[in-house]
Amino acid sequence: MRDFRAEVIKNIPPSGIRAFFDLVIGMEDVISLGVGEPDFITPWHICEAAIYSVERGATSYTSNLGLLELREKITDYLEKKFAVSYDPKKELIITVGASEAIDLAFRAICNPGDEVIIFEPSYVAYVPIVKLAGGTPVVISMVDGDDIIFDVNKLREHVTDRTKAIFINYPNNPTGKSFSRDELMQIAKVAEEFDLLVVSDEIYGELTYDYSHTAFSSLPGMKDRTILISGFSKAFAMTGWRVGYAAAPNQLIEAMMKIHQYSILCAPIASQVAAIEAINRGDKDMRLMRKDYFKRRNVIVDGFNRLGLPCPHPEGAFYAFPSIKRLPYTSEEFSHALLREENVAVVPGTAFGPGGEGFIRCAYAASLENIQEALKRIESFLKRHGHNK
Amino acid sequence: MNEMELKREILEILTTDSTRTSAEIATMLNRSEKDIADLIKRMEQDKTILAYRAVVNRQKVESKKMQCIIEVTCSPQRGVGFDAIAQRIYKFPEVRSLSLISGGFDLLLIVEGDTMKDICFFVAEKLATLDHVKGTSTHFLLKRYKEDGFILEDGDKPQRLAITP
User: Fold this and answer.
1) What one-character DSSP code corresponds to residue A304?
2) B149 touches chain A (CB under 8 A)
3) Among A159, A221, A388, B155, which residue has the least CB neighbours within 10 Å?
């Protein structure tokens, strides 16, 4: 029988995270720092709003673009919070999580051979999604020794006449690195100079700790060349509800909508109602969660630095990305050994691209007690193998 | 963060978990251990922090103690309002907490006793007989569901995968 799979799929390797997940599953007493989602459950008033809407019969399709009320709430929020205004009727689409918005964005813009610049280490889906859309990912490593650094010169060096877009994600999964306004301005200058589109995944924007998050599209002249992507999963602890959105100029939203209407139709209505409640009354919950993440970040970063595993300062999201380069292990070897010997699950940095070698991703979306216990176990692992600081 | 904001942050951590050390709080808030220890000491001295206690699910230790909520109506006194009668009431050790409230009643008490009889005696003999107390309404607590922000029943654990992207 023939191999029915498409070539493009055959050539995409499975996610490194999935392989590690298979190892962890079935193990007991594992302290997991490997989870890329909040450990909070969705605030009850948000769940209750969705339940109430279902009880009242909200079980139908919505407009392809999503409930107008939700789109209006989101555009109000973007205006108020980031000083960037979008037309809710023409410039915003509700998607099934930010992941769908990313997929739509690249399917809507990529012609075969179009290059998309991606900074690595990056979220596991970015490179495959660009490939699946027919684009060519051009990867720039931000790793500089034990640190994660943005270098605009590297960006310039990678722009060619085939470059169509720059893909940024800040605060970043897996490094926690964000971009300051100054760094964003440097990216904006390159985008303008070479007439590039910027796809900006800002799903962790609300989880920025050291300074205010700047939306890329709010920079002068950037709204017309930006697809802003975000959603409710991270800030409101709503990962399972799958509600995201993209805001962009009408022509791009229309292009994305064509794909969305044929492949998805619309995001689930109950989830959209929950998102309305989140945006109306979820601000306090979000602030409390952010405060908790801030404390946990300080504890985990301090912990790794004390153990002699230098940790680039994560300005946002809920990930620490300590370097293990001084140890005689690859990221994968270290993660496996830690799981086997100490029952602590972390994700090897290589799951986020080859540039992640020598790092591990540790999510601090875990209770303080678990973070402290995991640090103790890592310390005991290092001592037992003679790798004290 | 000014001093008052820092105090609030410290209190928020301690009211959630009073076993946190100054060193741990200092790391969480990115401050020096000495700054945090000094502020806590000052808050202990000025009675901002009154005590460090555990939040207990008494239903798990088969405690026979009874608790009730008592709503009290009383008449205020010239010059002191409700303060004098409140002082008179809160001195009884059976009274675990007392607040002045708005609405149909004036004072809200949480009263604890070893038996229901003890509480009945306290209400009938001590509380209701005080001058200026016009009436009481007593509600015995039958079952607790949530205590100080903690849900007491063991609910389902949220389902979360151990590793996700």
Assistant:
1) H
2) no
3) B155
A 46-105 residues with CB < 8 A to B: none
Exposed, middle or buried: residue B64 (CB in 10 Å: 0-12, 13-18, 19+)?
exposed
Name, in order, each residue with C-beta under 8 angstroms of A261's C-beta and a sequence gap of 6 or more. Answer: A64
Angle between helices A283-306 and B22-29 (to 10 degrees): 110
Residues of A in contact with B149 (CB under 8 A): none
- pTM, two decimal places: 0.90
Encode pLDDT of A269-288 as tens digits. Answer: 999 999 999 999 999 999 99
For chain A, the average pLDDT equals: 96
Q: What is the pLDDT of residues B4-28, one digit of tens each?
A: 999 999 999 999 999 999 999 999 9
Residue B35's pLDDT is 96
Tens digits of per-residue pLDDT, A292-317?
A: 999 999 999 999 999 999 999 999 99
ipTM, 2 dp: 0.79
Q: Which one of A295, A306, A338, A367 makes the best mutation probe of the B interface by having the most chain B beta carbons within 10 Å?
A: A295
Query: What are the backbone angles phi and psi of residue B40, rounded to the nearest 5°?
Result: -65, -45
Sign of CA dihedral A299, A305, A308, A309: positive
CA distance B164 to A171: 18
Chain A contact set for B163 (CB, 8 A) = 17, 20-21, 24, 32, 34-35, 345, 347
Considering CB atoms only, which of A35, A173, A302 is closest to B27? A302
Which residue from A78, A77, A97 is spatially nearest to A243, judged by alpha carbons? Answer: A97
CA torsion angle B101 B102 B105 B106 (round to 10): 50
CB atoms within 10 A of CB A60: 7
Task: Determine the pLDDT at residue A14.
Answer: 84
CB contact under 8 A, A17 and B165: yes
Cβ atoms of residues A349 and A331 within 8 Å: yes
B90: helix, coil or strand?
helix
**Interface contact B162-A25, CB threshold 8 A:** yes
Other beta carbons within 10 angstroms of residue A329's beta carbon come to 18
Q: Tally the C-alpha atoms within 13 A of residue B114's C-alpha that lie toward its C-beta.
A: 0
A173–chain B Cβ distance below 8 A for any pair: yes
